[in-house]
């Protein structure tokens, strides 16, 4: 019996699958990449038990755990003026032609000149991201994508820069709630960094009070100090009280003469 994991383009699940192989060598993994439009359908049709997805998705019937954020970047031809910037303001891209559906980048759509003026031209036929990158390299337009996507499909004739003004995207782990199994619980623990010795009965972080710290475990030194203190208290209680000495008059006193001794 195997365990199937789907992941959307740009996600690298190698670290988690390696840990799984170390902890559960008796359960082989089936790991495969999905396109964005099927990152949830692979769960619904049973091809995968868990899916590493890029949000947002339709979460109906699903349990979803956020994992990390992705920085958005703009990708353009190598000679583009963004090469001179470390961080590109979204407003500086308002006059560009986006080689994507504008609804994929709402922040750009809402300020784009070609959208506002109704002069946006039809997109060329592009069957996959590699062909999109060919259009970018030819100077036809730009794209705004997560950094992981730009890196995955990078070429020497294109450049990318972080873009300010576009929300970060989120990578999450999703599975069908009703199908939660021990294997799924095990994988959840792995992506959350839980050690193999951790108990599944431990209260999850979501259930803890906001800002609350886990209870401090008593140290051996604490126990030893407490025992020593108890012994000191018991010894003090068992010791008889000492008689209080009367206080002497201040100053020095002379020795008293013997009245029976006569002076010569």
Automatic annotation (TrEMBL):
<comment type="similarity">
    <text>Belongs to the LysR transcriptional regulatory family.</text>
</comment>
<protein>
    <submittedName>
        <fullName>LysR family transcriptional regulator</fullName>
    </submittedName>
</protein>
<keyword id="KW-0805">Transcription regulation</keyword>
<feature type="region of interest" description="Disordered">
    <location>
        <begin position="195"/>
        <end position="264"/>
    </location>
</feature>
<dbReference type="GO" id="GO:0032993">
    <property type="term" value="C:protein-DNA complex"/>
</dbReference>
<feature type="compositionally biased region" description="Basic residues">
    <location>
        <begin position="254"/>
        <end position="264"/>
    </location>
</feature>
<keyword id="KW-0804">Transcription</keyword>
<keyword id="KW-0238">DNA-binding</keyword>
<feature type="domain" description="LysR substrate-binding">
    <location>
        <begin position="18"/>
        <end position="193"/>
    </location>
</feature>
<feature type="compositionally biased region" description="Low complexity">
    <location>
        <begin position="227"/>
        <end position="240"/>
    </location>
</feature>
<dbReference type="GO" id="GO:0003677">
    <property type="term" value="F:DNA binding"/>
</dbReference>
<dbReference type="GO" id="GO:0003700">
    <property type="term" value="F:DNA-binding transcription factor activity"/>
</dbReference>
<dbReference type="InterPro" id="IPR005119">
    <property type="entry name" value="LysR_subst-bd"/>
</dbReference>
<dbReference type="Pfam" id="PF03466">
    <property type="entry name" value="LysR_substrate"/>
</dbReference>
């Amino acid at each position: 019996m195997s365990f199937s994991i789907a992941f959307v383009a740009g996600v690298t699940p190698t670290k988690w699958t390696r840990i799984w192989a170390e902890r559960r060598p008796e359960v082989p993994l089936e790991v495969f990449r999905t396109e964005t439009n099927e990152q949830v359908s692979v769960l619904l049709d049973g091809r995968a038990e868990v899916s590493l997805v890029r949000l947002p998705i339709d979460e109906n019937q699903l349990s979803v755990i956020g994992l990390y954020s992705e920085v958005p970047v703009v990708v353009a031809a190598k000679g583009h003026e963004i090469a001179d910037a470390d961080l590109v303001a979204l407003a500086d891209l308002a006059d560009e032609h986006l080689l994507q559906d504008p609804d994929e980048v709402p922040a750009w759509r809402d300020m784009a000149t070609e959208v506002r003026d109704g002069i946006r031209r039809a997109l060329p036929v592009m069957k996959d991201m590699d062909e999109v990158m060919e259009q970018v390299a030819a100077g036809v337009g730009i794209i705004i994508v997560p950094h992981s996507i730009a890196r995955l499909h990078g070429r020497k004739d294109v450049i990318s820069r972080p873009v300010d003004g576009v929300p970060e995207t989120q990578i999450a782990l999703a599975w069908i709630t009703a199908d939660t199994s021990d294997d799924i619980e095990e994988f959840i623990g792995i992506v959350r960094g839980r050690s193999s010795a951790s108990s599944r009965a431990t209260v999850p972080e979501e259930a803890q009070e906001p800002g609350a710290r886990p209870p401090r475990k008593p140290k051996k030194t604490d126990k030893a100090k407490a025992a020593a203190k108890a012994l000191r208290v018991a010894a003090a209680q068992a010791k008889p009280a000492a008689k209080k000495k009367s206080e002497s008059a201040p100053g020095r006193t002379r020795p008293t003469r013997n009245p029976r001794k006569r002076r010569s």
